[in-house]
Structure prediction request, 462 residues.
Amino acid sequence: MSQEEKPWGGRFTEATDAFVETFTASVSFDARLYHYDIQGSIAHANMLGATGIISDEERASIVAGLETIHKEIDEGAFEWQVGLEDVHMNIESRLVALIGDTGKKLHTGRSRNDQVATDIRLYLRAEVDGLLGKTRTLGDALLDLADRYADTIMPGFTHLQTAQPITFGHHLLAWHEMLRRDAGRLADCRERLNVLPLGAAALAGTTFPIDRDQVAAELGFSGPSENSLDSVSDRDFIIEFCAAASIMMMHFSRWSEELVLWMSEPFSFVDLPDRFCTGSSIMPQKKNPDVPELIRGKTGRVFGHLTATLTLMKGQPLAYNKDNQEDKEPLFDAVDTLSDTLTALIGLIPAIEARPDNMRRAAGGGFATATDLADYLVRSGVAFRDAHDIVGRTVSYAITEQKDLHELSLDELRQFHQGIQADVFDVLTLEGSVAARRHFGGTAPDQVRAAVARARVLYSVD
Ligand code: ARG
Prediction:
């Protein structure tokens, strides 16, 4: 493309090197912002008209032209040109071709620097809203599942060793808490990104009598940004999003790891329907949990985008630098990966089928009620440290006898402490153990149901 055809060609005497043209172009990926670019341009044109910087006829012609372009792009009839570098100049140049010289007035009092910063904020705000909607759907699915499995006993682990019996519903509610905080981080990020950069122009603002409040109101921003240099330069809202997305993916990766473990033959705690699994090309018996494995795998790329955007920003002096063009691909991929992961989980979570017999069998092994026995002794007046020691010796005896605690006779138990009575067997059962943890935040089935109800109320008020 010759310099005369470029919007900034005036001061140049030779054509851009062919490689440099492609190297510096962003249209191959930022074309995705066209809807927001046009939305921002229409608001800008409306303000230019309202303030008398351009005439109302000019404003109307620009807005009509931009709407035509939007339709052309929607319909795939728009011809993107790498020589025009980015989404902004492609659209502006088409506007001039469509409506003539009036189109050249759109960029009055504006720069691509404040334009692109506005576009990304509009884009990310809409995406965050979509992600929050999906998060809520997933949260509802988790609550339904937790309610369904409020009484289902499974082993709780520390160090991946059987620790104490818990209910599966309680375990699922732990996932729900992670998700609830993740949603809060997304909402915080939305709040901070929702300010209008337009008006900052290249970096120092503009000499025209612009009305930034009008543009902010038309675009649904909470107000105009405070400082023109900061507005065109900082991408911390992208970093913040990538951080929130990374934490969310880290949680999903943990859930996935648990699902993969629980699906494995030695655990066999849950089953996933065939539609979420794939087979092996060599081993006919295999049914692999590919979806959770992929979620675990995709987490790494989102962490990568956080590192990439942090690194992108760290060496930049104020104000805008071309480095910032590199913000888009990581951001888009972080959004897409998180969005697809949420879609996958929204399908997967309600389809989880617990295998209560296997969970129960596993919870019964490993002396999972040893702490309950110690607590029992404490209630009969023994100090906890002494109770711990007594039960430790009881467990050691049970191991040599190859029995679990509840399989020992009352006489055998009384060898270790005379205060043990027949009612000890109530606390040594799995049901007794989980039912006893009936405080706020505990694993007892009643508490699980109460926590589900509290979470549902929370959803219904926000
Ligand atoms: N494509 C550029 C970006 O993504 C738009 C802003 C370019 N501004 C400039 N002065 N080169 O950041």
